[in-house]
Amino acid sequence: MVQLKKCETHGYYRGDNCPICGAEGKFLMNDWEVTAVSRMLAGILRHFPHKFGVLLDDRGWAYISDIVRGIKRKHKNMRWLRNHHIEGLILTDPKGRYQYDPEKGRVRATYGHSLKVDLSDLPQENIPDVLYYPATKEEAQFIVETGLKPSDRQWVHLSKGYRDAYVAGRHRVDDPVVLEIRAKEAAEAGYTIYRAAKTVYITKEIPAEFVSIAEEQEVELTEEELKQIEEERERKRKKMERRKRYGGGAT
Fold first, then answer.
1. How confident is the model at residue 235 (pLDDT cuts 50, 70, 90)?
2. Coil, strand or helix: which one is 233?
3. Which of 21, 44, 112, 187 has the fewest Cβ atoms within 10 angstroms?
4. Which residues, 6+ apart, have CB-to-CB distance to 15 below 8 Å?
5. How far apart are the first and last CA of the chain?
6. Per-residue pLDDT tens for 154-195?
């Protein structure tokens, strides 16, 4: 059970006790609430802000107060939600997928968008020599021959490590093929790569000359990772069923 709490000394954290001092902080959200609001937050900032009455600027920023108001308006059982709940989720996000501007009270997602947003102000320095990308067996050879371009997202998402890419790929298929991207060479050739999160980098394109199939490594998933993969696949399955049932209108 992953609760959201706040330690008086060390701030927000997820879990039972503060990971720094061990204190039992102030309870803010239970496991179900953390999961539900986190999914809505990601959806608002990446895909459907209009459904919650939230306006993103051209760089993807939204005001936290607007997000809170939109969630409460759409879900009457969340009238308890306040700005600090969203702030806590942002600052404790395990994937580091958000950028927070406390002075203006706003937030944006730094990757995963289906909406068109300008992320060209993300960092471009210290790009690793090699990055990785997961593909299906059917996709892998095609990408090696033609290069990488966005599909259902605005950007190509690359992973810092082989394991990160493999785990991301497992959310789609049981046996992903991990591709190796010579990122430093691509950047030196003029293809801009941005650092979007702890282990995620984004770019608009990687030509085939910088792509190859990585040497296979053995990856052992944790029980928590397997659970998350199973839940994500089930959620996507239900989403597809709703789309078929309602003629593509469900999100």
1. confident
2. helix
3. 21
4. 2, 3, 5
5. 27
6. 899 999 999 999 999 999 899 999 999 999 999 999 999 999
Q: How many residues does the chain have?
A: 251
CATH 3.40.190.170 fits 131-213, yes or no: no
CATH architecture observed for domain 4-109: Orthogonal Bundle (1.10)
Cα–Cα distances (Å) from 116 to 48, 109, 113, 152, in that order, read: 11, 12, 7, 11
Q: Which residues pair with 222 in a beta bridge?
A: none
Task: Region of 6 please: left (phi>0), alpha (psi -120 to 50) or beta.
Answer: beta
83-92 and 64-74 helices cross at what angle (nearest 10)?
110
What is the tens place of the pLDDT at every residue in 69-85? Answer: 999 999 999 999 999 99
- Of 155, 174, 161, 112, the C-alpha closest to 132 is 161
